[in-house]
Amino acid sequence: MTGPDEKFAKKERLVKTADFARVYRSGGSFYGGPFVLRVLPNKLGINRIGFSISARSIKSAVKRNRVRRLFREVFRKSKAAIKKSFDMVLIVKREPAAAFSYKEAQDIFLQLTKKAGIAA
């Protein structure tokens, strides 16, 4: 059973185009291989994350959705390790290695949050 802090609530999702545009326009960029993490402080007291994975970068919808699911799970499990009140957009520029695992996603995400200075 997961605790209340481990859920991925709707309020933690970045879904509105205007929110994505604001993060793209004003957020800082942090690079790690084929991944980019854009980070912008918010005044909500919670972290929100959105994903930008184009069909050009990963052709197969199955693979795109798998990458999104892996990073969503990493975000959900890593909430305690990230400072509060940030909007994040994870951008995938090109397809990761064929056997992309949860552990690799976790390492990349934590490395990017450290670069961004939001790792608690």
Please specify the SSE layout and strand pairing.
Elements: H1 17-26, E1 28-32, E2 35-41, E3 48-53, H2 61-77, E4 86-92, H3 102-116
Parallel strand pairs: 3-4
Antiparallel strand pairs: 1-2, 2-4
Task: Note the main attributes of this structure.
single chain; 120 residues; alpha+beta; Ribosomal Protein S5, domain 2; four-stranded mixed β-sheet; 21% strand
Could you please describe the fold and organization of this structure?
- By secondary structure, the chain is α+β, with helices and mostly antiparallel strands.
- It has one domain (4-116): Ribosomal Protein S5, domain 2.
- It is 35% helix and 21% strand.
- The protein has three helices and four strands.
- It has helices spanning 17-26, 61-77, 102-116; strands at 28-32, 35-41, 48-53, 86-92.
- A four-stranded mixed beta sheet has the order 1-2-4-3, sandwiched between helices.
- Helix 2 crosses helix 3 (102-116).
- It is globular and about 35 Å long.
- The two termini are 25 Å apart.
- The mean pLDDT is 91.
Radius of gyration: 14 Å
Tally of separate helices:
3
- Could you list the spans in which at least 5 consecutive residues all have pLDDT below 50? none
Helix content: 25-40%
Task: Please give the order of strands in the largest beta sheet.
Answer: 1-2-4-3
Output mean pLDDT: 91
Tell me the total number of β-strands. Answer: 4
CATH topology heading = Ribosomal Protein S5, domain 2
CATH architecture: 2-Layer Sandwich
Order of helices and strands: HEEEHEH
